[in-house]
Specification:
The protein has 375 residues and is of the alpha/beta class. It contains 16 helices and 13 strands. The strands form two sheets. A seven-stranded parallel β-sheet has the order 3-2-1-4-5-6-7, sandwiched between helices. A six-stranded parallel β-sheet has the order 10-9-8-11-12-13, with helices on both faces.
Length: 375
């Protein structure tokens, strides 16, 4: 990687140096940071990705041409440790801009670059809403406010996140849609279905971490109702997380037509095998799963939360959050109506063409960097 500092001493234009900071990530945030790193490197930016070693193992940021620095940014309620902050401070020492992804990463980045005049500019992308309730909500709001007020520019992945940042006192909050990589199945539908041993049964697919935000207990409630259908679907859930044992115990106890697949590296293949995708979440921004489903022409039934309505428009069936009856009825109606499924598949592909792609996302982020960084 070129040394921008030595270039400056030689009187040559400095190569823009950006540090991307993230915390624990197994899904959309990591996919976005990898995409951003790849696109920025291709445009001549010297990129360093700082984050947990597990994230590098999962997403292989170094393969994009970026430098990876292990920094164990805390994902829990405890502050990021001193050793991690020291490593992050060193990684950011000669950066022109630091770009944090998520609340924890934003707080860690703000703590190491400070708020003194002339310090390194900080960009914060908010990918998720903070859904804490009760006493935890007060602390969460304070942490949100600290993070957004420390940033020179806040990019919200959906309009409600932008409004939230402005309400918390952000100096500059803008919509920063996250373009998703175009999914492509590597195997055909029949091969994937044969591997999954689903036979001719309809497949309802959910993809996402097994965590409270995804509201999988509501999906299990709906699956219990589908058992009575003449052609009962099999529900496949791809993902892992802290609720796995709890969900599996309920599936076994109630003999539900649901299978937990664990983490999968072939999500596009799973979409190719699915008849319907479901997203029962409590909240989502520009959900990567929703983007993949519509791009691949898989009819989607989702809760009308966060940024989902503005993302999908009329190209998906939307139901209220937490309403298992509405979810069950919407899926059952689609299973009984091939014409409606075909119409949603066509509408989904058309809607996907209106979204910013990865190049658009990188171009917007780079324009922010250049606005804040060296001329």
């Amino acid at each position: 990687m070129a040394d921008g500092t030595s270039q400056e001493r030689a009187g040559k234009p400095a190569r823009l140096r950006a540090v991307l900071v993230l915390g624990t990530a197994t899904g959309g945030v990591g996919v976005h940071v990898r995409s951003l790193a790849r696109g920025l490197v291709a445009r001549g930016v010297a990129v360093t990705v700082a984050g947990p070693s597990a994230a590098e193992e999962h997403f292989e940021f170094a393969r994009t041409g970026a430098r990876f620095v292990p920094v164990e940014v805390s994902a829990g309620s405890r502050p990021t440790g001193r050793a991690a902050l020291r490593a992050l401070r060193e990684a950011c020492a000669d950066a022109h801009v630091v770009h944090a992804h998520g609340l924890r990463a934003g707080l860690a980045a703000a703590s190491v670059i400070g708020r003194r005049p002339g310090r390194t500019p900080l960009v914060l992308t908010l990918h998720n809403a903070v859904l804490a309730t009760g006493p935890k909500a007060v602390l969460a709001r304070m942490m949100e406010a600290r993070a957004v007020r420390a940033a020179d520019v806040v990019l919200g992945a959906s309009s409600d996140l932008v409004d939230r940042a402005r309400g918390l006192g952000a100096a500059d909050a803008r919509l920063g849609p996250v373009g998703a990589p175009a999914p492509a199945a590597r195997r055909d539908r029949s091969a994937v279905r044969a591997e999954l041993t689903v036979g001719a049964r309809p497949v309802v697919l959910a993809v996402g971490r097994l965590a409270p935000q995804k509201a999988y207990p509501v999906l299990l409630d709906a699956a219990a109702k589908w058992k009575a259908l003449a052609e009962a679907p099999i529900v496949l859930i791809a993902g892992d997380g802290p609720l796995r044992d709890e969900l599996q115990a309920r599936i076994d106890a109630e003999d539900l037509p649901v299978r937990l697949l664990g983490h999968r590296g072939d999500v596009a293949d799973l979409f190719a095998a699915a008849d319907i995708a479901v997203l029962p979440s409590h909240w989502e921004a520009r959900c990567l799963v929703a983007q993949e489903a519509l791009s691949m022409g898989v009819p989607l039934v989702s809760t009308a939360v966060g940024g989902i309505p503005e993302l999908v428009g009329d190209a998906a069936e939307l139901v209220p959050y937490g309403d298992a009856d509405a979810l069950a009825e919407a899926v059952a109606a689609l299973l009984a109506d091939p014409g409606r499924r075909a119409a949603l598949a066509e509408a989904g592909r058309a809607q996907a063409l209106t979204w910013p792609d990865e190049n658009d996302t990188v171009a917007q982020v780079l324009s922010v960097y250049e606005e804040l960084g060296p001329r």
